[in-house]
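Q: Here's a chain of 314 amino acids. Please give me its 3D structure as tokens.
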Amino acid sequence: MYEGYITDVKGIKVGHAEDIKGGTGVTVIIPPSGNSCAVEVRGSAPGTRETDLLNPVNTVESVNALILSGGSAYGLNASSGVMQALEEDGLGLDVGVGIVPIVPQAVLFDLAYKDYKCRPDSNMGKLAYKNAGINENRQGIVGAGTGATVGKILGMDKSMKSGLGSASICQRNLVVSAMVAVNAFGDIYDYEKGKQIAGPIDDGKIIKTVDVMGKIINNFSDLADKNTTIGIVSTNAKFDKTKLTKIAQMTHDGFARSINPVHTGFDGDTIFALSTNEIEADLNMVGVMAANAMSRAIANAIYATNKKESIDLI
């Protein structure tokens, strides 16, 4: 596996909560105050909350928490528990009569994995928040990755289990980290090792989704809205929302290198970009590092879930 975890960026806390039997979960990322945050959505079937706030033309610059979760649109309920916990802790945007916690969220579709009726709710969101700490380092079947699967073109029974992955890249005192819940329609590749590590299984072998697509041609209706890879890239460098939006865009290159096909009509691929605003750094350098960290995190989601250092294409 590749090294690093998103908590390598000083001040970031991560908390997970999941229902293993039900097959879903929540991951909450809590940044320090004074952060900046942006987002870039590339998939055509997203499930999100409060992402409009992160547009550079809008007022709010900082967030109190970010949430990745399963449950499809039902999973958006997790944010209410996180908001309640933040309010209890006195954290949120001062609106004069009180505070309003700023909690953007992205969800993935895992309802077909185990129990359709089991979805993240406010209690699970609040538990993930309460579990958050700087020493969290779990990957695989945990939090938002609990119900994640990949390579679903031949149906769930021929897909591969995926999960949550994280990785970091450091250059001197500059840290860039990524975390991702990989629930893609397509196949997964270890970009740096140049090999496919996950995809649909046919006759005991990992095959390529694009090869199957070429035979099916136009019969993909059963796969609509049942996927989505969602992630966060964080850095200790100083950037406003405009520059972080560019970094989020560049980070999607990591998706494109490691997932094929990606950004389809069946995926709601979303990446948040978060800065703790501690050191000066070049935007282009951070963007390149972010894409590489995201590629490594995607591979780690497969390696951690399958408990192997590498998975060879059969």
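Q: Can you summarize the key feature?
A: Confidence is low (pLDDT under 50) at residues 309-314.
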